[in-house]
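Below is how a single chain appears once it has passed through the pipeline. First comes the sequence as given, then the structure the pipeline wrote out for it. We keep one example in the README because the format questions we get most often are answered faster by looking than by reading.
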Amino acid sequence: MELSEYVTYDAVGLAELVARGEVAGAELEAAALEAVAAVNPLINAVVETWPAERAEEEAGEGAPLAGVPFLLKDLGVSMAGKRVELGSRLAKGNVASADSYLMRRFRESGLVTIGRTTTPEFAYGITTEAVLYGPTRNPWDLDRSPGGSSGGSAAAVAAGIVPIAHGTDAAGSIRIPAASTGLFGLKPTRGRVSMGPDVDEIFNGLAVQGGLSRTVRDSAALLDRIQGPESGDPYFAAPPDRPYSEEITRAPGRLRVGVIAQGGGRRRTEGAVLDALSRTAELLASLGHHVQEATLDPGVSWEQFVGANAQLWTANLVPWLDALAAASGRPIDPSTVQTETLASYAWGRQVTGADFVSALGVRNTVARSIGRHFDRYDVLLTPTLPELPPRLGVYAEAVEELDGLGWIDRLLDRSPFTACFNVAGTPAMSVPLTADPATGLPIGMQFAAAYGREDTLFRLAAQLEEAAPWSHRVPAVWAGSH
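Resulting structure:
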């Protein structure tokens, strides 16, 4: 298969070609690796590739995504015998001894994993500029960030290397890169996808796993294959009534949509993003939905919200770094860990047990308050980000002046719409409905629904994709043009 043809298909489309015998999985792998060679030197999204495992292809024969090339984020999932370095010099050379449950499900779905993508160190950022492998660049504008922490996966999908890739999301790390690169990205409900077997939850339930794609049906097909509990999981979301791949064929009905223009932090939403939000609200109204202005009340002050997130994030970071240091024999110092991570580590070591329990209390308050919004609305609409994708280097400005709390405050101030749905555990998605007329940069719109209601989001996403399609928009760096 020629590269120019390969990039025209989404994952479901490629799998259909394989199922009909019109193309072999090895041809798709070759096209994906050709795409890596063509565009990765420009965007620096893929840190390593490897030959597909024939056993992996055979295990997935007949599966819905059989033969589709796939990339793993360098964090959150383990593939036996492959490196997982978490974007950090401290973990450099770390090799996974076994598959995680999620990796096993990726294999069973038929996906053929050909490599791994960049991430900020320990996913501690909403831009992807780790010292270990250098900054990842946005295919739409190489001077700008593709977002984070799943920025490498987003850049690779946006540039046409693979149609779908793995991502994680603890405060927006699927949705922010999706918005920055013109992709569809859905954060599932807490407990929808197993984190096992090594951990029961990540960041005390704030983090979930999923993927980024160019089409809604690809994300639906992926979640169908990876959702559901594994033995020993401490909790899980109730199973969906029907496959998400079927939900996207069903009309969403007339939804009550609450539109929120401003986040809770100091940063105000930029004019270009407000215009995009207004156009999205008009589109929803034209589709028959009931649209009205709303406000987002997390039940606590912004300072309390940031403080609780900082306590949960940094306290979780401490044993993570300690374990890696013990395993690698390396010190935790500037030779192995970045400035902002060291500051977060130091701050986390001062979090007491009482502090941690109080932070969990804030998590509960936020979850209850956000949940009550969905008694009034079926869906909440916000910008995914309050601004266009920032230029590389912006987040690192004066970073040495920040402690751990200051670093988390900086991140949440620049992404004030996404993290509350991680704390609440409710599903949310970024949809690439529009672009900035002046720059051509994509602008993502976030839609959130009640706990367990990915079905509502997928139905709405499919309707929006049909009404305002985005697949014709491709970035400046695009494998199909090389």
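The chain has a mean pLDDT of 96.

See the next section for the split statistics.
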